[in-house]
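hiii so um. not sure if this is the right channel but i have a protein structure encoded as tokens and i wanna go backwards to a sequence. like what aa goes where. can anyone help
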């Protein structure tokens, strides 16, 4: 559970070291990407295509192929993940299904060739060489620091979870049948070459994965060979298949994906319940009872006109709404996203430096790793509906379990993913927004009634490493 705000915790002395930000280990090959900011990372990823052109002409619309023929980019891409890395990774204890899938497309269908339990490298290489099986490595950012750096920055850029899979396919073979995905896809070709065929979507911007039979998809709209250093983007719903050509020993590529369940429809599902609750406080029409036995009727078509009228009232209320709440999507993102990439050998973040006082000037840090939500009080068991402000952050999330579902060991006793953050009275909302929207702010100028509240708010954020004292 989030920690309560407003109380002064036990804190270290002012001589404690600043929050540690160790230097990153050098990558295997000089980076061709800019890690200065999330935006610079994305711009360098799609270079030479301009960011504005990408979102105007390609995003959610059509594929983009960037063929570079650049030895420096190719060397950097290859350093991200190689077939030769598998032996060492298998020694760390990988499991079939969870970490690795072994599969091959045979007669238009995916055949899974997984064994039971732990992955044995000798057996894995045997299936690769003799059965022409594709090795699918799940979420390599858990093991590869450079991919962690890339995906963490992309999560900041998109404000959405970013996952990845590596596919290693031997020559003359194909791992997956024609299919489409429910994610925006960026493919980086790392080793060898891959022959790609893309087809017109049958379900544009699809919300789920689906296999499509060859006789339904028609002729390819795009067909090309990806080589090391090349990048391919295509929107969710794009039907695709890929194989390693004969004469090429094998192909390795990483698929970086984002924007799963991140549509306006998903946002409405998240925001509408809070809007209904708030509007019902003011609008008696939403508090009148539904007809007797409505829930028992098979045909409820008679009530659609009434629902349509109520939805129009909600739309009118929305235009005057000061605060649109989307707490579940925010919490899900911040709970499951990658922590800041501070280096594999870095210690956990700890508060340090000067303690914030009333006359201190403070600055928010790790802005992209924290969100503010307004929710019902999670610690109030009585029937009174009291709202509180929650500040959730990802500074203590575990990279080792990123994108691995609910089976990971970050779950709490009730089976839900663990959240990290703080809890404050609703009266603290404006002061928190003040901190989030300012480059720097003086503690004594925070929008709170008493000096004690101002100092305690700053101290609570400091203990979570969310602010630094200047």
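sure thing!! here u go:
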């Amino acid at each position: 559970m989030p920690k309560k705000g407003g109380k002064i915790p036990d804190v270290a002395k002012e001589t404690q070291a600043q929050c540690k930000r160790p230097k990153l280990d050098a990558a295997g090959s000089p980076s061709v990407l800019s890690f200065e900011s999330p935006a610079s990372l994305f711009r360098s990823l799609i270079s030479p295509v301009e960011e504005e052109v990408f979102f105007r002409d390609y995003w959610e619309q059509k594929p983009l192929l960037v063929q570079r023929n650049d030895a420096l980019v190719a060397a950097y891409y290859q350093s991200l993940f190689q077939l030769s890395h598998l032996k060492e990774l298998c020694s760390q204890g990988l499991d079939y299904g969870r970490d690795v899938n072994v599969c091959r497309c045979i007669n238009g269908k995916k055949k899974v060739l997984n064994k039971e339990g732990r992955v044995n490298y000798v057996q894995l290489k045997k299936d690769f060489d003799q059965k022409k099986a594709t090795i699918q490595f799940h979420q390599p950012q858990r093991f590869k620091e450079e991919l962690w750096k890339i995906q963490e920055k992309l999560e900041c850029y998109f404000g959405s979870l970013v996952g990845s899979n590596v596919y290693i396919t031997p020559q003359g073979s194909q791992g997956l049948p024609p299919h489409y995905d429910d994610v925006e896809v960026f493919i980086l070709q790392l080793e060898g070459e891959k022959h790609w065929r893309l087809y017109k979507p049958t379900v544009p911007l699809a919300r789920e994965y689906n296999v499509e039979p060859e006789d339904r998809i028609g002729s390819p709209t795009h067909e090309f060979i990806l080589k090391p250093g090349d990048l391919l983007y295509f929107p969710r719903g794009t039907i695709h298949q890929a194989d390693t050509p004969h004469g090429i020993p094998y192909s390795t590529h990483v698929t970086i994906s984002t924007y799963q369940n991140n549509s306006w429809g998903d946002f409405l599902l998240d925001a509408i319940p809070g809007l209904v609750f708030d509007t019902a406080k003011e609008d008696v029409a939403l508090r009148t009872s539904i007809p007797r036995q409505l829930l028992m009727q098979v045909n409820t078509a008679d009530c659609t006109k009434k629902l349509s009228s109520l939805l129009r009232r909600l739309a009118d209320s929305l235009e005057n709404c000061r605060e649109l709440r989307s707490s579940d999507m925010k919490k899900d993102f911040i709970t499951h996203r990658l922590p800041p990439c501070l280096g594999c050998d870095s210690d956990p973040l700890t508060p340090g430096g000067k303690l914030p006082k009333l006359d201190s000037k403070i600055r928010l840090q790790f802005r992209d790793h924290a969100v503010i939500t307004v929710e019902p009080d999670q610690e109030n068991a009585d029937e009174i509906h009291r709202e509180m402000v929650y500040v959730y952050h990802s500074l203590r999330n575990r990279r080792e379990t990123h994108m691995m579902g609910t089976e990971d060991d970050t779950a709490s006793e009730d089976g839900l993913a663990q959240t990290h953050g703080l809890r404050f009275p609703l009266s603290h909302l404006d002061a928190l927004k003040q901190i989030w929207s300012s480059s720097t702010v003086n503690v004594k100028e925070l929008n709170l009634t008493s000096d004690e509240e101002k100092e305690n708010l700053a101290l609570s954020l400091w203990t979570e490493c969310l602010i630094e004292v200047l």
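oh and The radius of gyration is 26 Å.
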